[in-house]
Amino acid sequence: MEILASSIVAGLLFGMVLALVALGLTIIFGVMDIINFAHGEFLMYGMYTALLASQVLGVDPLLTLPLAALVGFLLGIACYKGFITYILRGPMIAQLLGTFGLMLLLRNIALLVFGSEDRAVHHGVLVDKSFEMGMGIIVPATKLAAAGLSVVAFVAVWLLMNRTRMGKALTATALNPQGARYMGISTEKMNALAWGIGGASVTVAGALIVNFWPVNPYVGLLFTMIAFTIVALGGFGSVPGAFFAALVVGLITEIPGFWDFLTYTLELDWMYDVPMTSFKYMWIYVAYFIIMVVRPRGLFGWKH
Amino acid sequence: MSSGILAIEDLKVRYSGLPVLQGISLHVDAGETVCVLGANGAGKSTLLRAIMGAQPAFAGRVLFDGREIQKHSTADIVRLGIVYVPEEKMLFSPITVEENLLLGAYVMDEEAQIRANLAFVYRLFPRLEERRRQAASTLSGGEQQMVAIGRGLMSNPKILMLDEPSLGLAPVLVDEVLDTVRKLKAEGMTILLVEQNVREALDLADRGYILQTGRIVGEGTGPALMASDQVKSAFLGL
Lengths: 304, 238
What we know:
Oligomer: heterodimer
Mean pLDDT of chain B: 92
Strand content of chain A: under 5%
Number of helices of chain B: 10
CATH class of chain B: Alpha Beta
Largest sheet of chain B: 6 strands, mixed
CATH superfamily of chain B: P-loop containing nucleotide triphosphate hydrolases
Helix content of chain A: over 70%
Number of strands of chain A: 2
CATH topology of chain B: Rossmann fold
Radius of gyration of chain A: 20 Å
Distance between the termini of chain A: 38 Å
Mean pLDDT of chain A: 91
Helix content of chain B: 25-40%
Radius of gyration of chain B: 17 Å
Strand order of the largest sheet of chain B: 6-7-8-3-9-10
Order of helices and strands of chain B: EEEHEEHEHHHHEHEHEEHH
Distance between the termini of chain B: 34 Å
Low-confidence stretches of chain A: none
Structural class of chain A: mainly alpha
Largest interface: A-B, 19 and 24 residues
Number of domains of chain A: 1
Number of strands of chain B: 10
Structural class of chain B: alpha/beta
Low-confidence stretches of chain B: none
C-alpha cells in the first residue's frame, strides 16, 4: 500500500514540474503553430544556469531561479529574432527541420562549453533532506519544492496570459493572427513574446529539476519527448490541457512503482524478474504513440 | 491630386503575378461616407486589404493624412487610426463578446476612454451588452457583425472601413446594420464602405466609386451614380 501511495504522490509531484516543462512548448505552438524541437535544450540551459550560478555565486540553487528565467527569456527571444523569424518565411518542412537544427546547435554549444560529463547539485538547503507526508510516504524536499514552485510559476504564466492586456493580445494572436493584426497587435512582437515566455518557463523548470537530476548536454531530448507527449495528450496550444496531461504523464513515469506494488500484492514470481525500472521512460513513448493513433487532437482539443 | 484624409494614387496589386488592382485612385475626405461598389472578384476586398498593409502594393501610393503608408505594417496602420472590419468578421470566437470588444481597444492607452467607448458600443448595440459574457461563437450572424463593427469602433478610428457588413444577413438585419452605419455617419465618422446592396449603399453614401475587374469605371454622388448607365447595367439589371 505504501508503495502505491508513494508512487502516486511521486508521480503527481513530478507531473507538476512537467507541466511547467511543457507550458512553453504549448504556448509557442498555440501562438505560431511551430513545434520547437529544441525545447528540451532550453531546459538543459536552465539546469546549467542554476548549477553554475549557485557554484560561482555560492548561493542556493533555488535563489538562481530569477536568473534562469532571465536567461530563458533572452535565449527564447534571441532564437526567435535571430533564426525562427527567417524560417517562418519558408515551407513547413523548413520550420520542422529548422528547430531540429536549433536543437543540435544548442546541444553542441553546451558540449563545447560545459563538456559531456554529468554534473549535479550537491549543496543546497533542500539537498538530501526529505519530508514525511504520513502513511509512510517520504518525499525528497527538492522534489516537493520543485513541484510547489512549478505550480506557482505555471499559475503566474496563466494569469499573465489571461488577466493582462499583453496576455490577451497573445491569446488573440493564437486564435486568429490576421484578426489580431487588424486590432493593431503586431504578430512579430507576440511571436517574440511567446518565445520569451516559453523559454523562461522551461528554463525555470530546468533550474528546479537540476536539484534532483544530474545535468549533461544530452539531457534535453528526454524532456523534449516528455513535453511532446504532454502537449499531444492535453491538446496542442491548450494551457489547462498541459497541466492535466502533465499529471497523467507524471504518473506514467511511476509505472515501475505500480508494477512493484502489483508484484508484491499478487506475489507472482515472473513479475519479480521483469526489469521494469529499465523501461521507465519507454511508457512515455508508448503513450505518445497511442495518443497519436487514438486521439491526435488531445484531451482538450487544439488551442483551447 | 492627393486631397482627403485617405488618398489612393494609382494603386496596383498583384496575386502571384496576376493583376488584381490595375491602378486605382480614390480619396475619402474627413467626415465623408464613400462607398465602393463592384461585382464579386472586382477587387473590393483586395483594395481594403491593400490599404491595411495586409496585401502588398505592387505600385502606387496610399496616403493617410498626407503620409505614405503603403509600406507600413498592419499594426502600425491601425495605430494611425485606420480600422478595417473584414467581411469574414475575424472574431476571436472562443472568448467573450466583451473581451472581443476590448481587444478592439488594444491600441488605446487611457482606461477611461476605453470604458467610454465600450459604453458607446453598448448604446449602439444594446443586444451586445445583454450578451457580453457569452462566447462570440455562440452569437447569431447579425450579432457577430455587431461585434465586428463595435470592435472596430473601440479605438476611436479616424476612418472606418467596412467590408460588406450586410453580407449573409437576413433582410431585417441588413436594414439594422445599414441604419447603424447611417448613425455613425451622423456622428461625423469617416467611412469607406464596400457593399453589394447597391441602392442602400448609394442612398446612404455621399459619394461612390464603381470598381470593375480592378479598375475604377465610374464615380460620383449617390443619385448621379444611381442614374448612371454603368450601375444600371452592372448591378440593377435594368
